Amino acid sequence: MKDVEEIRHIAAIDLGSNSFHMVVAKVVNQDLQLISRHKQRVRLATGLNDQKVLDQTAIQRGIECLEMFAERIQGFSPENVRITATHTLRQAKNTAEFIEQARQVIPYPVEVIPGAEEARLIYLGVAHTQPQSQSMLVIDIGGGSTELVIGHEFTPELVNSLQIGCVSYTNRFFPDGKITRKRLNQAILAAEQKLESIVRQYRKKGWDTAFGSSGTIKAVRDVLSESGAQDGSITLSRLEKLQDKLVEAGSVDNLSLKGLSEERKPVFVAGVAILFAIIKDLKIREMHFSQGALREGLLYEMEDRLKYTDIRLRTAESLAQKHQVDIDHARKVKKLAKQFLEQLAPVLELPAKNTELFDLLEWSAILHEVGLSINLQGFHRHSAYILRHTNMPGFNSEQQELLSTLVRFHRKALKLNEMPELTLYKKKHVIQIIRILRLAVVLNGQRSDDPLPELKIIINDHDKWTLNSVEQEWLENNKLLHTDLETEQQYWQSAGWTLQYA
């Protein structure tokens, strides 16, 4: 008898600096089939001023686009939709305002992802939509940033995100739409200066095939194809001839190139300048366009059965190994923290078991001592700094911020006024996770091989936490732990919390 096909619909939305994209796919058993693509030119980056504040007009354009996208995915369950925001919303000081307005029209969380994570997902999207080669160079020129990745099969190995974009460079070098050789050369030189620090490393590593993804490179490919480049490849000599045509036009308004859409025109010249700098400096013989990009990478990562590994677990383990974490101790802390969270989740009205908060608590337990590699003195702050600023594949910006926050507050004084504002997680939930992690750390503070007695936490209506054990004299036999709990009790009291133990 033939097995019944399991069908699942998923969607990925990419909030770029120039355009918003949505891809909808159907997962049938273990095959992913793209159903539809949707694109809206939003030009979000044009609304970002010198103070890094996004104006309301640009925000409104974005919200109107998301309203349209929401109609297409109405009824999709939260685990089947991912929305990621890139460069402009990484830069904007009022991103929280945008996310709050977005929440009113589309009922799914907006994740702001770091540049390196954006690059990794772009590579994943290209790798899944191209015939496999031994190694690939993937370039994606967006509105505010450019991602460059070299990888092998499905694994990115060299990842960078540079602040070079077709919208930002248009505003900087072609604000009035005039095109001159001097302006083009200035834009190219500025891009080369950004590339300077990584060029040697990329050339040395090398690659078999170079792919370009997303709008800028697609537009260049289309124009070159209409000009006689039948194979569709992008080369330095073809870009040089294209530059001549741009200078000859003299202005964006006068551009008349077959294959170039009206909506792409305003940012096309800056995109050509950036692409020329990349191909010239990296000595790329030819580049081919790939339909796969960030949103396809999101789709493939969303479907568990299509993943090759859990990237975030691998990231956490790699970071722990790099900083020589006492992994046996970390696993004991993780085990106890998980037990407490499973026990308390219904009382604390936390999301159900196996959700992201459970995972983040476990990862913070594994990584809470990475800062010891710097110094014992204030190592919780060192741990927080490392987790905030290290490239952590698989984590969006807020997940990374939350991990940093959890380890920052896992010991010592609770200066809760220093907690960052988060949009994906409720503060009351974060505080409960901090309490659980602190108790798991304190109770394992002796690093003893002797097992702890069975412990239970009781929380009354006034949010008083009481730590109980079935062994009545458990603390009498461990005076050092008793002292540590007394100190922890004082820290809780200073934060306005109540901790008791019996």
Kindly describe this structure:
The chain is of the alpha/beta class and 502 residues long. The chain has three domains: 7-112, 2-Layer Sandwich (Nucleotidyltransferase, domain 5), CATH 3.30.420; 116-300, Exopolyphosphatase. Domain 2 (Nucleotidyltransferase, domain 5), CATH 3.30.420; 311-501, Hypothetical protein af1432 (Orthogonal Bundle), CATH 1.10.3210. It contains 17 helices and 13 strands. The strands form three sheets. The protein has a five-stranded mixed sheet, sandwiched between helices. β1 (7-15) and β2 (19-28) form a beta hairpin. α4 (115-129) crosses α10 (294-302) and α7 (214-226) crosses α9 (265-281). It is elongated. The N and C termini lie far apart (60 Å).
Summary of the model, kept short:
Its main location: membrane. With 502 residues, this protein is α/β, with parallel strands linked by helices.
Spatial ordering of strands, largest sheet: 3-2-1-4-5
Assign an overall shape: elongated
Kindly report the average pLDDT value. Answer: 90
CATH H-tier superfamily of the largest domain: Hypothetical protein af1432
Q: Which percent range describes the beta-strand content?
A: 15-25%
CATH first level of the largest domain: Mainly Alpha
Furnish the topology, listing elements before pairings.
Elements: E1 7-15, E2 19-28, E3 31-41, H1 56-72, E4 81-85, H2 87-91, H3 95-105, E5 110-112, H4 115-129, E6 136-141, E7 146-152, E8 155-162, H5 166-173, H6 181-205, E9 209-213, H7 214-226, H8 236-249, H9 265-281, E10 287-290, H10 294-302, H11 311-322, H12 327-348, H13 356-367, H14 379-389, H15 397-408, H16 427-443, E11 455-459, E12 464-469, H17 479-494, E13 498-501
Parallel strand pairs: 1-4, 4-5, 6-9, 9-10, 12-13
Antiparallel strand pairs: 1-2, 2-3, 6-7, 7-8, 11-12
Helix pairs in contact: 1-3, 4-10, 5-9, 6-9, 7-9, 8-9, 12-13, 12-16, 13-15, 13-16, 14-15, 16-17
